[in-house]
Amino acid sequence: MSALVKKDKTLGRILVIIYVTMLVGLITAGGFYYSNYKEQYRNEIGKQLTAIGKLKSEEISNWRKERLGDGEILYKNYVFSALVKRYFNDPNDKEARVEIEQRLNSMQTAYKYDKLMLLDSLYRKKMIIPDSPEERPTSYVSWGTSDILETGQIVFEDFYWNEQNHKIYLKILVPILEEGSSKMIGAVALRIDPEIYLYPFIANWPVPNIKTAETLLVRKKGESVEYLNELKFRKGTALKLDHSIANITLPAVKAVLGHEGVVDGSDYQGNPVLADVRAVPDSPWFLVTKINASEVYAPLHKKLWAVIAFIAVLVGGAGAGVGAVWRQQQIRFYRQKYDEAKEWSTTFNSIPDLVSIVSSDHRIKIVNKNFADVFGKRPEELVGKRCCELVHNTKEPPENCPLRKTLSDGKTAKVEIYYEALRKHLEISTHPVFGDNGEVIEVVHFIRDITERRLMEEGRKKSNAELRDALRFNQEIILNAAVGVVVYDAQLRYLEWNTFMENMTGMKRKDVIGKDARELFPHIHESGVDKALGRVFEGETIAMPDVAYRCPETGKMGWVANTYTPHRNSSGQIIGAIGMIRDITARKQAEENLKNSETMFRSIATAVPVGLGMATGRVTEWVNDYLLQLLGRQREEVVGSDTRIFYETDEGYNLVGNQFYRELGEKGSSEIEVNWKHKDGRILNILLTGIVLDKEDVSRGIVFAALDITERKQAEHILQDSSKRYHTLFEQASDAILLMENEYFTDCNERTFKMFGVTREQIIGQTPIRFSPETQPDGRRSDEKALEKIHAAYAGNPQFFEWTHIRPDGTLFDVEVSLNCIEIDGHSIIQAIVRDITEWKQMAKELQKNTVCN
């Protein structure tokens, strides 16, 4: 074996060892990088779950406190207690009954409870607001709740199952105590339907397009954990599904056993999940916020492939570098052995890259078979051609030609280009071959296809962009939260101040961040907030339900309910505090207004010789004697009844509901002329004037004055019979009637509101697509099909078809629709008549089902 062959083999072994060493190092580094990235990714998802879990648990806790706060309105109210005692002693005492009904009706309307029930000391129902004949005579009260009530305290009755109507409820039970005594003579039960607010709030997820995300509310029941809300992937489970606490893989079990934070486990379906578990403050409940592990880690699969691809590119690059050295040695070796053995040609042609040897005048001396095949020639046909003419189709080499650079400086050169003819990314490298005098006599020219590597690099850039989007997620949750979120450092300087806080205080984030809280808001010392934060820095979670605030710079002031928790770093060290701030100014003002309203209205009633009254939610709460004389009615006929009894027609009633109340909401006061009806049938023309009790919320009640202007109006008003008949038919039709210009609703009758479950403001200006599911039962998209029907009607072809609509609460219902084009004042308008056929279709299905069974 010649010395040249021995030297070649020795160099080959060294290069193999170098390449293997680099290969092992790259794979090890890649594995470490992916493991570290996966752990960081899991931590980010965990932080997102923790943020959502904290926000929801605090909101649920505050909701409980607000409900208990509602009960405080009646608690130890000895005027109310005296009324109840009178009514219990004499059920025929109408005055006491009416007064009680007024108070309970007002609370039920203002706070949207399912029922308000007056109970005696044995929990028998003496009064139900609103009344329901299907209610059982005795209210459900657990033994533990009964014991607490007898001590004279307000009690929150936890979730329970009503066997009468098969629904789940909660209750606030307020004991009615004798004045000067702790003896309970009865109770008021404020029954809560969790389907109204609590269940939808728990089910709502702030981030779209996460299919397996779910929030569970649970509690410990003996040696089991019980699910309190309806599960997303298993229906009919609320208060019916439980699991043994021995099953510690369940996040719900971990929650009731005292765990808090992000945990791994399996959910009620057996699926691996990543979950945040925590106790709901001041309650027996625990919250589980979870996402299936398969969905959490799905993006990591792309990252894994990107890492593998990147390592492969690096390995390929390392191989290319080692290979370049190896090829340089090989070229020299084969050039020396060219005349001695023809095997060189076979080896040269087996090189997968496109290889050519080019002279100093840029002419090709030899190419391998792969090079010739790309250009559809035999190798000998390319000899003597200039490489720039062949590769670039130019007479002179391009500016970035690596061959020109190698001939100039005698160094290896490399460039990457996109070759349009092949639609590939190519790496072109040139390596000098020196003569005996040290001059470059020829150049070895390599062309390598790097298209796959470039695609992998682009994929890696895309993965990095997705990671940056995930990191922005937490900041977006904080900035857009429906409660105030502030973060303090250990020196009480602000680190975070979200949009809610900007709107509440009028102070922008840029003007607050980095500033000392005690300098910006001196009231935090007077209210004890700074002392509470001091306890938070020691590891406590502090709730402050009623705190007055004021902003010296903007002049804004009000009341807030605050919750403060420690802010810890990754090692668990407390580095600051996190505050959740809820604005309760409106509630505090409403409580004050409720205390003063009765005295105020009685004074007005005795001083003003006009009809006066007070209404909440269009239900009459109080009227003076003059108004009763004006209507010819008794007090018990009016108080507690809907104001509809004042009006001659539904049209007049609805006009006040739309125009009068809208102006009250905008300006705080309003005036309108209406027709009222005396009990003997006489029609009264009334000038109705109103003012709101709370300018921020019309629903809290209004005060109204009624002036009889019948004689003047009889001289002014002449009604057109045709117009009256049209409006009567339009408003009293049993079907929904809507008018459309183009595809937008411009008018509709009263039946429309009841059928679609909306108000006039919610439907006028909308399209039928707004109240339709994405697709119809035949599989067609609702928007495409609706426009097709409307355009056909405009073309003069009446349309009659079945359709499926959806109400704002998600309820689907089936209808028959008739579309006709009519002319009004020279305009083409579509008249739509909609009939609800949901019950008919259900009966048809049942009939078909029974027919098949028989």
Account of the 3D structure:
Residues 718-723 have low confidence and may be disordered. Helix 1 (3-71) packs antiparallel against helix 8 (298-336) and helix 8 (298-336) packs antiparallel against helix 14 (451-479). The strands form 6 sheets. This protein has a 6-stranded antiparallel beta sheet. 42% of the residues lie in helices and 27% in strands. It has 854 residues and is α+β, with helices and mostly antiparallel strands.
Helix content: 40-55%
Q: Radius of gyration, rounded?
A: 40 Å
Shape annotation: elongated
Tell me the quaternary state.
single chain
* Chain-averaged pLDDT: 84
Q: Report how far the terminal alpha carbons are from each other.
A: 98 Å
Spans with pLDDT under 50 lasting ≥5 residues?
A: 718-723
The profile of the biggest β sheet is:
6 strands, antiparallel
By secondary-structure content and strand pairing, the structural class works out as: alpha+beta
Question: Roughly what fraction of the amino acids lie in strands?
Answer: 25-35%
Question: Within the largest sheet, what's the order of strands?
Answer: 8-7-6-11-10-9
Q: Work out the number of β strands.
A: 31
Our count of helices gives 28
Offer a few descriptive terms.
single chain; 854 residues
Q: Would you spell out the secondary-structure blueprint of this structure?
A:
Blueprint: H1 3-71, H2 78-89, H3 94-111, E1 115-120, E2 125-129, H4 143-150, E3 155-162, E4 167-177, E5 184-192, H5 198-203, E6 214-221, E7 224-227, E8 242-244, H6 251-256, E9 261-266, E10 272-279, E11 285-292, H7 293-296, H8 298-336, H9 343-350, E12 354-359, E13 364-367, H10 369-374, H11 379-382, H12 387-391, H13 402-409, E14 413-419, E15 424-434, E16 440-449, H14 451-479, E17 484-489, E18 494-497, H15 499-505, H16 517-520, H17 523-526, H18 529-537, E19 542-550, E20 557-568, E21 574-583, H19 585-607, E22 611-616, E23 619-623, H20 625-631, H21 635-638, H22 650-667, E24 669-677, E25 683-692, E26 702-708, H23 710-714, H24 721-732, E27 736-741, E28 744-748, H25 750-756, H26 760-763, H27 782-794, E29 799-806, E30 812-824, E31 827-836, H28 838-853
Antiparallel strand pairs: 1-2, 1-5, 3-4, 4-5, 6-7, 6-11, 7-8, 9-10, 10-11, 12-13, 12-16, 14-15, 15-16, 17-18, 17-21, 19-20, 20-21, 22-23, 22-26, 24-25, 25-26, 27-28, 27-31, 29-30, 30-31
